[in-house]
Amino acid sequence: MNIIELFEKEEMLKAYRLLTELYPKMTEEEYSSQLDIMLPHNYSMIAVFVENEMIGVSGVWIGHKLWCGKYMELDNVIVTDKHRSNGTGNLIFEFAKKKAREQSCSSIGLDSYTYNHASHKFFMKEDFVIKGYHFVHIIDGDKMR
After folding, report:
1. 63: domain range?
2. Is residue 78, in this structure, part of any structural domain at all?
């Protein structure tokens, strides 16, 4: 397995197939447009490859919040079904933790759907704790994935 951080849109477009595992209705055009918006705002990706196949990916944001200061947020942590439980997720998290320390972040956060119990178990094994709830007020349900 090889892990790298992606900064260029062309590299990130290769993650489309993985993202459709989480968002099956997302088109490649929508994904490309979202990247155009996110990239100027400190967005990158961590990607895991076996040979030339991307088997795991997570978006990465670094920002600031009043309650914690500088932090890293992992966005859409995805590992292909056939590569789960083989260390791929752990590799992503170890890479992220190292980057967060290098960037002097106070914490790493992520969101997880309430029904995704398998991911909750994994995140807790990686020393993440449930700190609160993420509430959402939906304005346009058609835009929600």
Report:
1. 2-131
2. yes
**CATH number, domain with residue 92:** 3.40.630.30
**E strand or H helix that includes residue 79:** strand 69-79
Burial, 6: exposed, middle or buried (Cβ in 10 Å; 0-12, 13-18, 19+)?
buried
- The verdict on residue 137 lying in a domain is no
Q: What is the reported pTM?
A: 0.88
The total number of structural domains that make up the chain: 1
> Using one digit for the tens of pLDDT, what is the confidence trace for 11-63?
999 999 999 998 999 999 999 999 999 999 999 999 999 998 999 999 999 99
Tell me whether residue 65 is in a domain.
yes
Cα 110 versus chain centre, distance: 8
Per residue in 66-86, pLDDT (tens digit) is: 988 999 999 999 999 888 888
